[in-house]
Amino acid sequence: MLTKTITIKNPSGLHARPATAFVQKASAYPCNVNLIKGSKKINGKSIMGLMTLAAKQGEELILEVDGPEEEVALDELTKVLEAEHL
Amino acid sequence: MERTGIAAAPGIAIGRAIVKKEENMEIVRRSLEPNQISLEVERFKDCVQQAILELAELKEITEKKVGEEEAKIFEAQQLFLQDPEFVGAIENMIEAEHINAEAATQSVRDQFLAIFESMENEYMRERSADLRDVSQRILRHLLSITQNETAVVDGPQILVVHDLTPSDTAKLDLSITRGFATDIGGRTSHSAIMARTMGIPAVVGLSNVTEEVSDGDLIIVDGSTGNIHIRPEPVVLQEYEDKLRDFQLRQETLAKLIHQSTMTRDGRHVELAANIGNPSDAESAISHGAEAIGLFRTEFLYMGRDDFPSEEEQFASYKSVLETMGNKPVIIRTLDIGGDKELPYLNLPEELNPFLGYRAIRLCLDQTELFKTQLRALLRSSAYGNLRIMYPMIATLDELRKANQVLSEVKQELVDKNISFNHEVQVGIMIEVPAAALVADQLAKHVDFFSIGTNDLIQYTMAADRMNPQVSYLYDPFNPSLLRLIQMVIIAAHREGKWVGMCGEMAGEKLAIPILLGLGLDEFSMGASSILQARHLIKQLDSQKMAKIAEHVLTLSSGQEIKDYIQQEVMR
């Protein structure tokens, strides 16, 4: 299992387009993907999970990947979360 | 029969009604025998697959008919149907509770709806409409409901629905659907936004219009006023047919003016600009014929968050507007916050009279770091277009001097760091406090321009709260006292060779434009959708003649008298 702390840079937070992009990417990997904000942990392959997480710009999230291809997944998903414009 | 709802998209539509009532799906909860469960899960999965295919088709249709941006909603809905937490939860429920797929779908949907709707966020509340839409789609498949075939009606149609879901919108046939009316919804609901994007007249929020109308009824939708007429009398019908023809002619005339400059009949050029509140509004300003941005409110950058926006973030926003506008001028107003527009992270004490309190430039001159960050971002962005900086709420020369002092300090910092910016960037102030109007001659020496902010200037001059309906009779831009102040400001600025604009709602008012033109106003900034009408009007006016009209207006003694006079002398 790998984890990484990431700060959301997109001005509109992890809503709409960035959330869609993240879920689409996450679903392409065989490993489990989770996002943790405070005491809340959600399935990173779930659009509804991401939406209810409602992560805003400047907030810190922990990205957790576990299983096959976890290293690539960590890198690629970090890019989506840290992108300023999507 | 006449009904009034919310005007959602302007224009008039006349046609025969197609009524679509809310689908009433009876969901019965059934217990399953253990040997039926895996079959039920398979049945559910099949229905989800069919729904996903339908959405792909809808996405394609919408891309062609409306636009790529609008079609994205179906992509999002597809993701809902592939969501392990949603679809998975329904499957688990079928297996764990031994119940039918319909009941499980409804139950999981309701759980998520409760979460979405409890969130303090308009975006999430809108997404609950998508969740309802996709759930409905699965349920229709589970219950094998084929969607009601629409009634056959000849000629133009008006769609009458409980609510227009994204799927309904995609299926609209724009060659025959001329407008629509709904039971529920507001100006910002999905249906209203789509109607405006597609340019079809719509009235929403009519509460029970689907009950009052039958298929084939003649309907008039007036999306500008929010009225609909059901089975209208011949006189009413005639009236609207005339209006519709006029409206179409007018739209054609206005569309020709988009790329023209704003020249009076006697050849005086004035600038027509747009007020915007978001960088993304700039494109729409251009498509509505704006020659400039006369007011870019920067508050959006500061609102709805937990901390101040960084210099980089501000820079990116300012730069994007400047680049979109090319060499057209863009006036960006520095932070106008405090008082009624509060920022939780500023920790401002509650005030008794927020409009007379610690706000805008008063706050910025006190919290200079906040001000400097914004000015740095502004100056840096000035290298990318035609920026003009404007301070709000200036009341005294001393305040203006202090603000300019801070600006020159920031300029020096940038020079020291070798960061490029436009050294000649124009700097102006809003004239919205009567005290500033009264010393406009002194202020004019220290600025490049004035922009009269009538919304506040009226309420401060008349001592009438613009939100209080009991004193709304005083809140009138045509009041002689206000017009005299405006005249003073324009004369004072022109004496110093400076230009004067106006960025309040008055600048786009049909009856005010002739007076303002006559008083010598150089720039009119308004909501983008008013620009072409203003251009159409100004092109027919003679500035010399309007100067005489304005001179006479200033001798009249009430707002009503002034409006009647303009109506009679200019608008005939």
From TrEMBL, chain A:
<dbReference type="InterPro" id="IPR050399">
    <property type="entry name" value="HPr"/>
</dbReference>
<dbReference type="InterPro" id="IPR002114">
    <property type="entry name" value="PTS_HPr_Ser_P_site"/>
</dbReference>
<dbReference type="Pfam" id="PF00381">
    <property type="entry name" value="PTS-HPr"/>
</dbReference>
<keyword id="KW-0963">Cytoplasm</keyword>
<dbReference type="InterPro" id="IPR035895">
    <property type="entry name" value="HPr-like_sf"/>
</dbReference>
<feature type="domain" description="HPr">
    <location>
        <begin position="1"/>
        <end position="86"/>
    </location>
</feature>
<comment type="function">
    <text>General (non sugar-specific) component of the phosphoenolpyruvate-dependent sugar phosphotransferase system (sugar PTS). This major carbohydrate active-transport system catalyzes the phosphorylation of incoming sugar substrates concomitantly with their translocation across the cell membrane. The phosphoryl group from phosphoenolpyruvate (PEP) is transferred to the phosphoryl carrier protein HPr by enzyme I. Phospho-HPr then transfers it to the PTS EIIA domain.</text>
</comment>
<keyword id="KW-0813">Transport</keyword>
<dbReference type="InterPro" id="IPR000032">
    <property type="entry name" value="HPr-like"/>
</dbReference>
<keyword id="KW-0762">Sugar transport</keyword>
<keyword id="KW-0598">Phosphotransferase system</keyword>
<protein>
    <recommendedName>
        <fullName>Phosphocarrier protein HPr</fullName>
    </recommendedName>
</protein>
<dbReference type="InterPro" id="IPR001020">
    <property type="entry name" value="PTS_HPr_His_P_site"/>
</dbReference>
UniProtKB/TrEMBL annotation, chain B:
<protein>
    <recommendedName>
        <fullName>Phosphoenolpyruvate-protein phosphotransferase</fullName>
        <ecNumber>2.7.3.9</ecNumber>
    </recommendedName>
</protein>
<dbReference type="Pfam" id="PF00391">
    <property type="entry name" value="PEP-utilizers"/>
</dbReference>
<dbReference type="InterPro" id="IPR008731">
    <property type="entry name" value="PTS_EIN"/>
</dbReference>
<dbReference type="InterPro" id="IPR023151">
    <property type="entry name" value="PEP_util_CS"/>
</dbReference>
<dbReference type="InterPro" id="IPR036637">
    <property type="entry name" value="Phosphohistidine_dom_sf"/>
</dbReference>
<keyword id="KW-0762">Sugar transport</keyword>
<dbReference type="InterPro" id="IPR036618">
    <property type="entry name" value="PtsI_HPr-bd_sf"/>
</dbReference>
<dbReference type="InterPro" id="IPR040442">
    <property type="entry name" value="Pyrv_kinase-like_dom_sf"/>
</dbReference>
<dbReference type="Pfam" id="PF05524">
    <property type="entry name" value="PEP-utilisers_N"/>
</dbReference>
<dbReference type="InterPro" id="IPR050499">
    <property type="entry name" value="PEP-utilizing_PTS_enzyme"/>
</dbReference>
<dbReference type="Pfam" id="PF02896">
    <property type="entry name" value="PEP-utilizers_C"/>
</dbReference>
<keyword id="KW-0418">Kinase</keyword>
<keyword id="KW-0460">Magnesium</keyword>
<feature type="domain" description="PEP-utilising enzyme C-terminal">
    <location>
        <begin position="253"/>
        <end position="542"/>
    </location>
</feature>
<dbReference type="InterPro" id="IPR000121">
    <property type="entry name" value="PEP_util_C"/>
</dbReference>
<dbReference type="InterPro" id="IPR018274">
    <property type="entry name" value="PEP_util_AS"/>
</dbReference>
<keyword id="KW-0479">Metal-binding</keyword>
<dbReference type="InterPro" id="IPR008279">
    <property type="entry name" value="PEP-util_enz_mobile_dom"/>
</dbReference>
<comment type="similarity">
    <text>Belongs to the PEP-utilizing enzyme family.</text>
</comment>
<keyword id="KW-0598">Phosphotransferase system</keyword>
<keyword id="KW-0963">Cytoplasm</keyword>
<dbReference type="GO" id="GO:0008965">
    <property type="term" value="F:phosphoenolpyruvate-protein phosphotransferase activity"/>
</dbReference>
